[in-house]
Write a structure and sequence with these properties.
The protein has 478 residues and is an alpha/beta fold. The protein folds into three domains: 149 residues, Response regulator (Rossmann fold, 3-Layer(aba) Sandwich); 167 residues, Rossmann fold (3-Layer(aba) Sandwich), CATH 3.40.50; 143 residues, Helicase, Ruva Protein, domain 3 (Orthogonal Bundle). The protein contains 21 helices and twelve strands. Helix 3 links the parallel strand 3 and strand 4. The longest helix is centred in the first third of the chain and has 25 residues. InterPro entries: AAA+_ATPase, AAA_lid_NorR, CheY-like_superfamily, Homeodomain-like_sf, HTH_Fis, P-loop_NTPase, Sig_transdc_resp-reg_receiver, Sigma_54_int.
Length: 478
């Protein structure tokens, strides 16, 4: 496994330094400095791939410091953070210092993390290119490498990545969702947990005219109202306890792009009113702000609840439902698309082989038959966990046999599957989800970001589930 990149963070304010380190520490080795003098000493003794520097500091600005760094240590990819506007002086200084990214305050954690990831990737690609040619690549070449990386990411989420056979009910779902890409309307994706609702939402985004802008995700069931509003709409410093600085919300972060609101059925009536206003007016009002801000965002929402039943019961607003469900799409449960299981299992095994550095040669016929007979209360997510466990238990690269199946799997044939989504099924799914979170956290040694990526959750959403399910301290600490 590749070593994490080393990031040097420079900021004279202790609170800002701590906030930046907290965002980056799960994925990177983070070094800190409270002055340019400290930063110079760090650079003299450490190999650093990315420098993240505040602009406004006593004695010397971030841009002035990074100009000096460029002359002495040209390799690290440089990012500057500033609350200043994009004046001509600032832009010229950014160019002279060879700064890769210019991030404005208030920054959003996910946005900042994405930019640092891109910078670390750029450093790696730059050095791979130098190693191959012994000539330092031009800025145009580096930009081409970054563009290629972004195109490759988009390729991961195209409709063709949704595995299904021609006779599968998912074929009709994909055909329907493709039509949604042509029109800028809200989409509501329904279906049980683990059926691939977020994958479908990403395909809709990357197949639409908004593909060049951001796709952001929020799990609406993971946060109390005040924090959810802050996450989505932003906040001003002091708007509530713990709001230590201005914060850009995900709606503003997704301006021009798409926001995916997962578990929308878990939101409270009071929050639903505020979300309805955003959808009606096309503007957000950050907590504590005096004026609203216009945003152009496409909303794709998802739920595992029957929202019309929730409307009838008075738990979900009818007007909000019709705003969200302008284009409804339903993802079928895995047990209702058994024809797809062999192809899905093969795709999952390819990914697991790559991650585990293994070459397991598929599945024994009786294993695929057992897969077809199983109820799959956890859907594709449960299938992935089962295959991952089987590979880990296997001592060879021979096809995986039924002897490697988990005991709980063998005790639950498809005939035992409940007709509806009652409390018993919900309890079983939650137990599976808790086990999956614990297993994933252990495997990633407690690294929240990597575990969240694998589980298809945001960092905030995973933290909320860890608290909700009381995930063991052993799993959290790795």
């Amino acid at each position: 496994m590749a070593q994490p990149a080393t990031v040097l963070v420079i900021d004279d304010e202790v609170r800002s330094l701590e906030a930046l380190k907290r965002v980056l520490a799960d994925e990177f080795e983070v070094l800190v400095a409270r002055s340019t003098e400290e930063a110079t000493a760090v650079l003299a003794g450490e190999m650093v791939q990315v420098i993240l520097c505040d602009q406004r500091m006593p004695g010397e600005t971030g841009i002035a410091f990074l100009k000096r760094v460029r002359e002495q240590w040209p390799d690290p990819v440089r990012i500057v953070i500033s609350g200043y506007t994009d004046s001509e002086d600032i832009i010229q200084g950014v160019n002279e210092a060879g700064i890769y990214q210019y991030i404005t305050k208030p920054w959003h954690p996910d946005h900042l993390l994405d930019r640092v990831r891109e910078a670390a990737d750029l450093y790696r690609m730059q050095h791979e290119a130098v190693g191959a040619s012994e000539v330092k690549p031009s800025p145009a070449r580096l930009n081409a490498l970054v563009d290629a990386r972004r195109k490759a990411e988009r390729g991961l989420y195209e409709f063709d990545r949704i595995v299904h056979e021609r006779s599968s009910p998912v074929a009709g779902v994909v055909a329907l969702a493709r039509r949604a890409t042509r029109y800028d309307i809200s989409v509501l994706i329904t279906g049980e947990s683990g059926t691939g609702k977020e994958l479908l939402a990403r395909a809709i985004h990357y197949g639409s005219g908004r593909t060049e802008r951001r796709f952001v995700v929020e799990n609406c069931g993971a946060l109390p109202d005040e924090l959810l509003e802050s996450e989505l709409f932003g906040c001003k410093k002091g708007a509530f306890t713990g709001a230590y600085q201005d914060r850009i919300g995900l709606f503003e972060e997704a301006d021009g792009g798409t926001i995916f609101l997962d578990e929308i059925g878990e939101t409270s009536p009071s929050f639903q009113v505020k979300l309805l206003r955003v959808l009606q007016e096309g503007e957000i009002r950050p907590l504590g702000a005096q004026r609203p801000r216009k945003v152009d965002v496409r909303v794709v929402a998802a739920t595992n609840r029957d929202l019309l039943a929730e409307v009838a019961a008075g738990r979900f607003r009818r007007d909000l439902y019709y705003r969200l469900a302008a284009f409804p799409v339903h993802m079928p449960a895995l047990r209702d698309r058994a024809v797809d299981i062999p192809a899905i299992a093969a795709r999952l095994l390819d990914d697991i082989n790559r991650n585990f550095h293994r070459r397991v040669a598929g599945f024994a016929p009786e294993t695929l038959a057992a897969f077809a007979d199983y109820a799959w209360p956890g859907n594709v997510r449960e299938l992935a966990n089962e295959i991952q466990r089987m590979v880990a238990l296997s001592d060879s690269d021979e096809p995986l046999g039924t002897d490697l199946l988990s005991p709980g799997f063998r005790q639950q044939p498809a005939s035992a599957a409940p007709a509806g989504s009652g409390a018993a099924l919900r309890d079983r799914i939650e137990a599976l989800e808790r086990a999956a979170i614990e297993e994933t956290m252990r495997r990633h040694a407690g690294n929240i970001s990597r575990a969240a990526d694998e589980l298809g959750l945001s960092r905030v959403g995973l933290r909320a589930k860890i608290e909700r399910y009381a995930v063991s301290r052993e799993a959290r600490d790795g």
